[in-house]
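As the next step, I needed to go through one protein, both as residues and as discrete backbone shape codes, included below for the reader:
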Amino acid sequence: YPASVVDVREGTRWLLRHTADLDVRPDRVAAVGASSGGHLVALAALRDDDPATPDEPDPPGRPGAVGESLRALVLCWPVVDPARRYRWAVARGMDLVSRQLSWFGSEAAMAAGNPQRVLERWAGHRLPPVLLVQGEADANLPVGMAERFVETYGRAGGSARLMMLAGAPHGFALTAPDSAAGRRAVAEIVGFVHEHTAASV
């Protein structure tokens, strides 16, 4: 951090600038991220003021942050409040503490690169629709973090849907894609992305 967020944001901008070369419709681009990848996708979509600025201009007709250009976001068991997750993990003596601190570098960076806090003072661009997929038995994230993010997203003017799956652990749709919860999550994700990218077909 923050290079990883910059990479996601600039990679998305590159894609949107080269849609014609790639035979991709710019109005049918969505982003999906899981766990820390969900954090990266959310923050890249919400913030446009991280270090490094693109050498090329934004895609024509696509102003401001990357989120303005995306049709939808899918966040799977995301770390949407890293500062809260860090304090929660410290209190429990979890091995997540060293890994999260190594990636962010400091608690100050966790507070700065925090999608939840960005939303709490939101005054930015149009928010893309969000699907947040979460397992109720997730031992890697604090209880209530997903619900709070979805609620705050709605108050900020965005459309957010929470899919909570009973008994599902962290990463369930990747580690057990053929489980009932995994199949339900994948079907919901596919339907959500199709719903928000097929309208312009």
In short: The CA atoms of residues 138 and 169 lie 4 Å apart.
